[in-house]
Amino acid sequence: MRKIWFAGIFFVIISFTLIGCSGDSDEVNSNANKNEEANEENGNDVNNTENNEDKNDGENENSDSNNEAVDANAAEADEGGFADEIKPLGVEEVLLDQEKVSQFKEGRDTFIEHDELLYVEHNFITHLLDYELTYDEENTFAEVFKEKGDYAYEPSYKDEGGAIMDLGQVYDEDSDEYKDIPGESAESYKMIEYDGKLYVPERLINVFMDTPLNFERRDRAMEVGLRSEATNIYDFGIDDQYSSSTAEVTQDASDVTIEGKNNEKGVVIRNINSASKFAAILTDYNYSQINGIVHNKSDENTIEVKLQYNEDKTVETIELEPGDTQEFKHDVKGEIVFYISATGPAGTTSEAVVIGELK
């Protein structure tokens, strides 16, 4: 009987032990399953993170590309085209020798500036002044003829908005020769294409078309030829390089008082004798006219005064007796210098005074 009881107890103990082990196994399996699920979730999180990183990298690359494109466009905009270098002048009227030009139409960019140099639209200026001006860009020369012809410029730089073009020689009809453009003056003679039209530099118009230009900014008026305001030759001055050492500008009342009138300022030529004395006014193609008076200050000697464009081109010879005064007026268009030359008898000295103005 005791054996049966011990056997029963042993059976119960074994049963509880097996049940406990079974519970532990289930818990282990459960934990394993939980770990697998966690690992799967972590794997998904890792994959999602990698995908997000790849996506962000792509977006960043696209953003960088877009920024580079914007920067490039901004840089290109900052650089601008040739047209951005051109400054159209707001000219409201054009005066030819102080007469209003009816053919001028405001707002057509007839006059422009580039690097502070003035340019005029080809068709306008050649019609206005009745000149023919042709231009060969490939061979870098221009030809100038009196009387307007039928030359028409063919644009070459429409896509670029225009261009600056070199000029190496100009054919001058008066001298019947091609004249080289000095290297130091090359920038002043360059041609411009702008908005499909040819523009002529002011310097070429001054020198080869014998016409000065002056822009009155206050009145927005372009003066072609004569200026509205005159410049006193005293204020303009004489050129020391071409003048005699005895010629000078003066405000001395004893020099500029003529026939009881104090003219305030002028030019005096002293020590006039048999050797010519010069006062040179360097108009440099920028004026149309010089006018004034010349007076012999000597009480004893007759002097001869020559008005000249150069030593070989005298436009007027004036013989002045002691105390005489003579008026003068001359065209200086297309001239670089105007000379006033005086001579007197050998062994004597005299003085001459010039009072005048440039327009």
- Can you tell me the number of structural domains? 3
Low-confidence spans: 1-53, 69-78
Percent of residues in β-strands:
35-45%
Helix content: 25-40%
Number of strands: 26
Secondary-structure blueprint:
Blueprint: H1 2-79, E1 87-88, E2 93-96, E3 99-100, E4 111-114, E5 117-121, H2 122-129, E6 131-136, E7 141-146, E8 162-165, E9 169-172, E10 177-180, E11 191-194, E12 197-201, H3 202-208, E13 213-216, E14 221-224, E15 231-232, H4 233-236, E16 247-250, H5 253-256, E17 257-258, E18 261-262, E19 266-272, E20 277-281, E21 289-296, E22 303-310, E23 313-320, E24 325-331, E25 338-343, E26 350-358
Parallel strand pairs: 2-14, 7-9
Antiparallel strand pairs: 1-4, 2-3, 4-5, 5-12, 6-7, 8-11, 9-10, 11-12, 13-14, 15-26, 16-19, 17-18, 19-26, 20-25, 21-24, 21-26, 22-23, 22-25
